Protein backbone atom coordinates (compact mmCIF):
# COMPACT_ATOMS: atom_id res chain seq x y z
CA UNK A 1 0.00 0.00 0.00
CA UNK A 2 2.78 2.44 0.92
CA UNK A 3 4.67 1.47 -2.24
CA UNK A 4 1.55 2.17 -4.34
CA UNK A 5 1.13 5.60 -2.71
CA UNK A 6 4.83 6.34 -3.25
CA UNK A 7 4.62 5.29 -6.91
CA UNK A 8 1.47 7.35 -7.45
CA UNK A 9 3.10 10.40 -5.85
CA UNK A 10 6.23 9.93 -7.94
CA UNK A 11 4.18 9.58 -11.12
CA UNK A 12 2.24 12.76 -10.34
CA UNK A 13 5.49 14.59 -9.63
CA UNK A 14 6.96 13.41 -12.94
CA UNK A 15 3.82 14.43 -14.84
CA UNK A 16 3.91 17.86 -13.23
CA UNK A 17 7.60 18.22 -14.03
CA UNK A 18 7.11 17.16 -17.65
CA UNK A 19 4.17 19.55 -18.06
CA UNK A 20 6.09 22.43 -16.48
CA UNK A 21 9.26 21.86 -18.51
CA UNK A 22 7.23 21.42 -21.70
CA UNK A 23 5.30 24.63 -21.13
CA UNK A 24 8.44 26.60 -20.29
CA UNK A 25 10.28 25.44 -23.41
CA UNK A 26 7.40 25.66 -25.86
CA UNK A 27 7.74 27.87 -28.88
CA UNK A 28 5.27 28.75 -31.58
CA UNK A 29 1.63 29.66 -31.04
CA UNK A 30 0.76 30.23 -27.38
CA UNK A 31 -2.99 29.82 -27.70
CA UNK A 32 -5.07 27.73 -30.06
CA UNK A 33 -8.77 28.58 -30.30
CA UNK A 34 -10.91 25.53 -29.59
CA UNK A 35 -14.09 26.44 -31.39
CA UNK A 36 -16.62 23.66 -31.82
CA UNK A 37 -15.37 21.61 -28.88
CA UNK A 38 -17.44 21.93 -25.73
CA UNK A 39 -16.06 19.75 -22.93
CA UNK A 40 -12.33 19.31 -23.53
CA UNK A 41 -10.98 16.63 -21.18
CA UNK A 42 -7.38 16.61 -22.42
CA UNK A 43 -5.31 18.73 -24.79
CA UNK A 44 -1.88 18.14 -26.36
CA UNK A 45 -0.06 20.57 -28.64
CA UNK A 46 2.88 19.88 -30.92
CA UNK A 47 3.72 23.55 -31.38
CA UNK A 48 7.42 22.99 -32.04
CA UNK A 49 6.71 20.95 -35.15
CA UNK A 50 3.82 22.26 -37.19
CA UNK A 51 1.21 23.66 -34.82
CA UNK A 52 -0.97 20.56 -34.88
CA UNK A 53 -2.93 19.87 -31.70
CA UNK A 54 -5.01 17.02 -30.35
CA UNK A 55 -7.92 17.21 -27.91
CA UNK A 56 -10.30 14.82 -26.16
CA UNK A 57 -13.93 15.91 -26.00
CA UNK A 58 -16.78 13.64 -24.93
CA UNK A 59 -14.62 10.51 -25.15
CA UNK A 60 -13.60 11.24 -28.75
CA UNK A 61 -10.27 12.33 -30.18
CA UNK A 62 -9.96 15.43 -32.37
CA UNK A 63 -7.07 16.79 -34.40
CA UNK A 64 -6.73 20.49 -35.01
CA UNK A 65 -4.67 22.98 -36.96
CA UNK A 66 -5.25 26.74 -36.81
CA UNK A 67 -8.48 26.28 -34.85
CA UNK A 68 -10.12 23.89 -37.32
CA UNK A 69 -10.95 20.61 -35.58
CA UNK A 70 -11.79 17.25 -37.12
CA UNK A 71 -12.72 13.98 -35.40
CA UNK A 72 -10.07 11.28 -35.60
CA UNK A 73 -10.88 7.57 -35.51
CA UNK A 74 -10.15 5.80 -32.23
CA UNK A 75 -9.78 2.04 -31.91
CA UNK A 76 -13.14 0.24 -31.99
CA UNK A 77 -15.00 0.51 -28.69
CA UNK A 78 -12.43 2.77 -27.02
CA UNK A 79 -13.55 5.79 -25.02
CA UNK A 80 -10.61 8.19 -25.23
CA UNK A 81 -9.72 9.76 -21.89
CA UNK A 82 -6.21 11.18 -22.34
CA UNK A 83 -3.91 12.29 -25.13
CA UNK A 84 -0.21 13.10 -25.53
CA UNK A 85 1.81 13.94 -28.61
CA UNK A 86 5.48 13.64 -29.48
CA UNK A 87 6.71 17.25 -29.67
CA UNK A 88 9.36 16.22 -32.21
CA UNK A 89 7.03 14.29 -34.55
CA UNK A 90 3.37 15.32 -34.32
CA UNK A 91 2.32 12.20 -36.25
CA UNK A 92 3.12 10.17 -33.11
CA UNK A 93 0.10 10.36 -30.82
CA UNK A 94 -0.66 8.46 -27.62
CA UNK A 95 -4.14 7.97 -26.17
CA UNK A 96 -5.34 6.44 -22.93
CA UNK A 97 -8.60 4.50 -22.80
CA UNK A 98 -11.20 5.26 -20.15
CA UNK A 99 -12.81 1.85 -20.52
CA UNK A 100 -9.75 -0.39 -20.94
CA UNK A 101 -6.39 -0.93 -19.26
CA UNK A 102 -4.59 0.11 -22.42
CA UNK A 103 -2.58 2.85 -24.06
CA UNK A 104 -2.59 3.19 -27.84
CA UNK A 105 0.02 4.71 -30.13
CA UNK A 106 -0.41 6.05 -33.65
CA UNK A 107 2.49 6.79 -35.99
CA UNK A 108 0.29 8.39 -38.64
CA UNK A 109 -1.50 11.24 -36.88
CA UNK A 110 -4.32 9.15 -35.42
CA UNK A 111 -5.35 7.21 -38.53
CA UNK A 112 -4.25 3.81 -37.17
CA UNK A 113 -3.50 2.53 -33.66
CA UNK A 114 -1.41 -0.12 -31.90
CA UNK A 115 -2.57 -1.28 -28.45
CA UNK A 116 -0.32 -1.70 -25.42
CA UNK A 117 -2.12 -3.45 -22.55
CA UNK A 118 -1.29 -2.36 -19.01
CA UNK A 119 -1.17 -4.38 -15.79
CA UNK A 120 -4.55 -6.04 -15.31
CA UNK A 121 -4.35 -5.43 -11.53
CA UNK A 122 -5.00 -1.73 -12.09
CA UNK A 123 -8.46 -0.38 -11.31
CA UNK A 124 -10.19 1.90 -13.78
CA UNK A 125 -9.04 3.25 -17.10
CA UNK A 126 -6.14 5.47 -18.08
CA UNK A 127 -6.66 8.98 -16.69
CA UNK A 128 -3.52 10.75 -17.96
CA UNK A 129 -0.61 10.28 -20.35
CA UNK A 130 2.47 12.46 -20.84
CA UNK A 131 5.31 11.97 -23.31
CA UNK A 132 8.90 13.00 -22.59
CA UNK A 133 10.42 13.61 -26.03
CA UNK A 134 13.94 14.07 -24.64
CA UNK A 135 14.10 10.67 -22.91
CA UNK A 136 11.54 9.03 -25.25
CA UNK A 137 9.37 7.92 -22.29
CA UNK A 138 5.60 7.73 -21.95
CA UNK A 139 4.21 8.32 -18.47
CA UNK A 140 0.81 6.80 -17.64
Look at the structure and give the mean pLDDT: 73
Morphology: globular
Helix content: 10-25%
Strand proportion, as a percent range, falls in 25-35%
Question: What is the CA-CA span between the terminal residues?
Answer: 19 Å
Over all CA atoms, what is the radius of gyration? 15 Å
Topology diagram in text:
Elements: H1 2-25, E1 40-45, E2 53-57, E3 60-65, E4 68-72, E5 80-85, E6 93-97, E7 102-106, E8 114-117, E9 130-132, E10 137-139
Question: What does this 3D model show about the protein?
Answer:
The protein contains one helix and ten strands; from the N terminus they run H-E-E-E-E-E-E-E-E-E-E. With 140 residues, the chain is of the alpha+beta class. It has a single domain (2-139), classed as TolB, C-terminal domain (Neuraminidase). It has a four-stranded antiparallel β-sheet, with no helix packed on it. Strand 7 and strand 8 (114-117) form a beta hairpin. The longest helix is centred in the first third of the chain and has 24 residues, at 2-25. The chain is globular and about 40 Å long.
Tag the structure with descriptive keywords.
140 residues; alpha+beta; Neuraminidase; four-stranded antiparallel sheet; 10 strands; 17% helix; globular; Glycosyl hydrolase; signal
Write a brief caption for the model.
The chain has one helix spanning about 1-25, and strands at about 40-45, 55, 60-65, 70, 80-85, 95, 100-105, 115, 130, 135-140.
Amino acid sequence: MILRILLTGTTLLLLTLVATVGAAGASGPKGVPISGLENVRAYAAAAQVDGRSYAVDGGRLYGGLNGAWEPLPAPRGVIVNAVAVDRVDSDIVYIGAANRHSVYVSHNGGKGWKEFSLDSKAIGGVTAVAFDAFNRLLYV
